[in-house]
Amino acid sequence: MALAARAAEVEVPAALVEQILAEMTRGPSRVLVQASLAERIFGRWIRPVLEPRFALGLAMALLSIAVIPRDWRPPTPAKLWTMAENRVYRVFDRAVKNYEDLALVADVQDQIAGMRDQIGEWRDGERLTDGANAAGERVGER
């Protein structure tokens, strides 16, 4: 590391990069860098298709399509309707179950039941006593 730190910086000649690019694209060295077979057959427009990202994406799409069973058929409208209807019933049943499971709902239902019991006691304008409810007697009939 010490040797690298003491070494002087190397300056790149200004025209060197341009000369290398010109040599590779237009000069006699272009023959050494031969185009791929697909590029020679189809021309330069095939180059983006041969990029790894595109080629691997295309391969994954083909693999995904190959996984689909050969006897797969799209569902009929009646089957689609049945599936949608079953899903609606399931969602509704789950919503009712979750609603009934709520502790708050249970407390409110208990309060409503208590109010109904009180209303039942006040029936016909005459109040029944707590002990008379079970025996069926009215207040004043003892």
Provide structural commentary.
It contains 7 helices and no strands. The model has no long low-confidence stretch (mean pLDDT 80). The chain is elongated and about 115 Å long. It has 142 residues and is mostly helical.
Helix content: 55-70%
Largest sheet: number of strands, sense, barrel closure: none
- Quaternary state of this entry equals single chain
What coarse outline follows from CA principal-axis ratios? elongated
Number of helices: 7
- Topology, number of strands: 0
Mean pLDDT comes to 80
- Rg, alpha carbons: 43 Å
Whole-number tally of structural domains: 2
Distance N to C terminus? 113 Å
Strand % is under 5%
- Poorly predicted regions: none
Please outline what is shown here.
With 142 residues, the protein is mainly α. The chain is 61% helix and 0% strand.
Secondary-structure blueprint of this entry?
Blueprint (H helix, E strand, L loop, with lengths): L1 H5 L9 H10 L11 H6 L9 H16 L9 H25 L1 H19 L8 H6 L7
List keywords for this structure.
single chain; mainly alpha; 142 residues
